[in-house]
Amino acid sequence: MKICPESLALAKELLLAGQVVAFPTETVYGLGAWAYSAEGIRRIYEAKGRPSDNPLIVHVAPGASLEGIAEEIPQRAEVLMDRFWPGPLTLIMPRDKDHIPSEVTGGLETVAIRMPSGAGARALLSFCGIPVVAPSANTSGRPSPTTALHVLEDLGGKIPLILDGGPCEVGLESTIVDLTEEKPLVLRPGGITLEMLKRWIPDIDLDPGVKGAISVDAKVVPKAPGMKYRHYAPKGHLILTNAPAERWKQWIREDLSRASEEQGKDKTTVRIGVIASNEMLEDLEQEGVLKLCHAAISLGYVKEPEMAAQLLFGALRQADEKELDIIYGEAFSREGVGEAIMNRFVKASAEQRIL
Ligand code: AMP
Ligand code: MG
């Protein structure tokens, strides 16, 4: 879906006036402000309700120079920029303190930079010719938006413009890589996987803080400030599990009878839903367990994790729309983009049943 020139012109006018504009990227929808506008930056934090120590990513147009953003470009960054830009990869570099306001970086001496490949983002950034800070265009804590409608749900009435470019292709936020320290680290897993990065930077690894968030080890603090927050959680109780379908069936039946015994409730008033692969949904269908559920939300086929990545945030939003009380979520393999899927899914979950 192409964004018309009139809309781009309006967006540019708003950004230069210190306003915010939501726009599509290949990862998720971003809430953009001019990176040099203190007013615009303030409005981002306000509209999202975002904690001010959670820094923003600066987005640049294809071919744009990083002058006035990064103080220097580390040599290893050049390698990754050549290979993966434009694309869903954010690189941490030393901040150009004369130009990038400290509000952008939450007071850090480094700055996060990305050159998006999504057609809408490219069109906007090229048209405006300015660096644009753009966190995900959701209310802080909610699943990131992967359609313009998701943005409208969260920020409708709070921001002056949403550019609609259709659904995002990747569906999860960018991979973040820090190259400012001796040991190169992935601070947030995303569409560009650890395996892809290792081909170019063999000693790169996952930040132990990210692994910590996965194993719920509170002693290890993630290096990307935003990764420490609980995120994406639906209102219902999300149980993430790698158990086979037989266990799901047992649990769902137990939940229903417990609810009817304990609260004297009619079984149907407890709203149970599942977020799972097509294979799992078919298994649950067989003994009629799916009929006991209020929602069967698909993440596509197990063999196509890219599809699950694209669908996950929408699936979590659907859980709220359907007002589910209990949600069973299927754990995916951590291979490839599975690492990023599981990173977000774990953050969204209230409980994990890993066998
Ligand atoms: P979002 O804008 O919602 O995609 O979140 C941006 C993420 O980038 C957050 O998790 C931030 O903590 C992280 N980030 C931004 N700037 C930096 C930086 N200079 N160093 C480390 N992490 C950063
Ligand atoms: Mg976000």
SSE arrangement:
Elements: H1 5-16, E1 21-23, E2 30-34, H2 38-48, E3 57-59, H3 75-84, E4 89-94, E5 110-114, H4 119-128, E6 132-133, H5 148-155, E7 175-178, E8 185-188, H6 194-198, E9 205-206, H7 208-215, E10 237-241, H8 245-262, E11 272-276, H9 278-286, E12 295-298, H10 305-321, E13 326-330, H11 338-348, E14 351-353
Parallel strand pairs: 3-5, 4-7, 8-9, 10-13, 10-14, 11-12, 11-13
Antiparallel strand pairs: 1-2, 2-6, 3-6, 4-5, 7-8
Helix pairs in contact: 1-4, 10-11
Bound molecules: adenosine monophosphate and magnesium ion.
A few lines on this structure:
The chain has 355 residues and is α/β, with parallel strands linked by helices. It is built from 11 helices and 14 strands.
* Portion in strands: 15-25%
Order of helices and strands: HEEHEHEEHEHEEHEHEHEHEHEHE
The molecules bound to the chains, other than polymers, are: adenosine monophosphate, magnesium ion
What would the average pLDDT be, to the nearest integer? 94
Write down how many β-strands occur, each being a DSSP E stretch of 2 or more residues. 14
Silhouette: globular
Q: Which regions are unreliable across 5 or more consecutive residues at pLDDT < 50? A: 214-218
For the largest beta-sheet, the strand count, sense and barrel status come to: 9 strands, mixed
Describe the structure in your own words.
The structure is a single chain. With 355 residues, this protein is an alpha/beta fold. Helix content is 34%, strand content 16%. It contains eleven helices and 14 strands. The chain has helices at residues 5-16, 38-48, 75-84, 119-128, 148-155, 194-198, 208-215, 245-262, 278-286, 305-321, 338-348; strands spanning 21-23, 30-34, 57-59, 89-94, 110-114, 132-133, 175-178, 185-188, 205-206, 237-241, 272-276, 295-298, 326-330, 351-353. The strands form two sheets. The protein has a nine-stranded mixed β-sheet, with helices on both faces. Strands 12-11-13-10-14 form a five-stranded parallel β-sheet, sandwiched between helices. Helix 9 links the parallel strand 11 and strand 12. Helix 1 packs across helix 4 (119-128) and helix 10 (305-321) runs parallel beside helix 11 (338-348). The N and C termini lie far apart (43 Å). The model is unreliable at 214-218 (pLDDT under 50). The protein binds adenosine monophosphate and magnesium ion. Residues 54-57, 92, 105, 108, 110-112, 135-136, 173, 176, 187-188, 223-227 line the site of adenosine monophosphate.
